[in-house]
Amino acid sequence: MNSATAVSPANIAFIKFWGKTDSNQNIPYNDSMSMNLSGCLTTTTVEFDPRLDDDRIVINKFEASGSGKQRVVRILDIVRREAGMGLKAKVESANNFPTASGIASSAAAFSALAMAASTAAGLTLSKRELSRLARLGSGSACRSIFDGFVYWKGGKDDRTSYAYQLAPVTHWDLWDIVAVVAKESKKASSTQGHSVATSSPYFRQRQRGLPLRIKQMKEAMLKKDFPKFGRLLEEEAVDLHVMAMTSRPPIFYWNSGTMEVMKKIREWREEGKEAYFTMDAGANVHVICRAKDEAEINQRLGRIAGIESTIVNKPGRGTWLI
Ligand code: DP6
After folding, report:
1. Which class does domain 173-313 fall in?
2. 8 Å CB contact between 33 and 18
3. 103, 116, 162, 228: which sits with the fewest CB atoms below 10 Å from its CB?
4. pLDDT bracket for residue 184 (50, 70, 90)
5. What is the DSSP-derived secondary structure letter of residue 102?
């Protein structure tokens, strides 16, 4: 068998990865925590083919070239080396969420690629090995390999930096409604953001507070203490963006839609409708609520003028083969 297809979810970071100690191996300054998104999936097929004289990478029906292609070829090269073979591959990848939804999902893409490429090459990797391979494509991809709620132990080098499961999909009925307020792709990629992270005067300060925040967030998650979890979630999201806005050069991801959703969520809480916000490196807001409130909150989001659409997610399983 020279061909394999894998499906993998995007994930939302509850504790954020921001800043790399090694940008070649994607080793983060700090541990991070996330939940997989059941509704944001990438499907990737890799076929090693003796008739090809170069790798062909097709993403959402467009042929990739330049640095986008190189990032994928790097993973293929590692797999070829491990498998002791030299065949070129065709890689075809597509997202189930609208391409122009502003959800750039390198996490879903590189976790699916890691599993599809290694399987197509005849390798049998453990989940930890898959997590490390996915990480080399995009840091946050290492978390999408595992089901449900996931922790990435930052480690200090390639061997010690990988993710593992904290709790299964069924652990907690947390939903993530993505409020899409910007469809265009962001101006500064997260890779660029990582490279300037330490220039923010708030970087060190956040690092100092993180061990306690991580401990408290893990506890709140395992005990399903939603108010405590939500407070920590929002503090962490704001910290990420404060760092981005104060780095040199500064990066502003929020737009007026982002601000409007944050304001509404705080108002709804005062009325007793409990939801919390977080954002990754982009303007779109991930609205985290309990299953019982999902329909009502989704409806309320639909009435906010700046929102173009919403994507509803439950805790999702990790990468799988089809
Ligand atoms: C803000 O994993 O996309 O979403 O390794 O350069 O591809 P690269 O970065 P990436 O960074 C994710 C940043 C974040 C936080 C997170 O997901 O932890």
Report:
1. alpha beta
2. no
3. 228
4. confident
5. S
